[in-house]
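dude i think i finally got it to work??
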Amino acid sequence: MRCLKCRQEAWVELRRHNAAYCNTCFVTYFRDQVGRAIRVHQMFTPEDRVLVAVSGGKDSLALWDVLIEAGYQADGLYIDLGIGDYSGESKRVTEHFAAARGARLHVVGLEEEYGYTIDLVAAKTSRKPCSGCGLTKRYLFNRKAAELGYDVVATGHNLDDEAATLLGNVLHWQTGYLARQAPVLEAEEAGLVRKVKPLYRLTEHETAAYAIIRGIDYIVEECPNAVGARSLLYKDALNVLEERSPGAKQSFLLGFLERAQPAFSAEDEHELHPCVECGQPTTTPRCAFCRLADEMTRPGPTRRRGRRRGRRDPVGNRQPAAG
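look at this
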């Protein structure tokens, strides 16, 4: 194969585009895709302070690398969730990345600041670990961005993540989640900071290739709590479609964003107000995070794992963790 741009030997094949690139041209392609997403959706400007939610995975570190190289005021936020050895290794990788680039990294220790870990959530409640993890991260991303004066939070959700989330929400017709699934979630006066997903046009394969070419050390192992997660099932199903019909994921997601999401968004009605305890935005008097944190710090026995049904805040919508 030859590179589409320079005609040198290609190393990265993109079947959905019927194209291939050498390492140098692929890096340019990747950065152009991120730049296009930022520009088209007016995600942020060079004057804005951007807080990148980083986990030590390829996606979030690749995004942070692109933003740093492009000259944005991009700092990182890492949340130590207390997931055994996995959290220790992901924290090490993230701190190494920041130190190598002289970038600012904010670290929040869930146990040190709030008295619990995601491992404790799994042991003490009937809530699935990924549910408690997602709720915790979304809450802290928003809270820390507001407290530290950032204009926007950027996450590393890629095309595979977004397509899998869309498939799950369509299968269960989660209309509220469909209304809010977009590359940009606007800020709201109740204290919701703007959220953006600059990698939504790029696949996991492409972010992995970028990280390898750029020499980014990232944690390869899946989170141990992700075993059996439905998001992985949806990804597997979409991978089968993609293998037989390259571009299926892209058509599914971009078609939804262009033709269907505005209709769901137009009918989305929710009223946010400050939580009576922490002041963060919620649709209920006391936010889901405060309820979870209180449950974690109360003495009591561990519980058997099972399903729990109930209302969720708009800011607590189900989403794969950004890698």
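Residues 129-148 form the longest helix (20 residues).
im so relieved honestly
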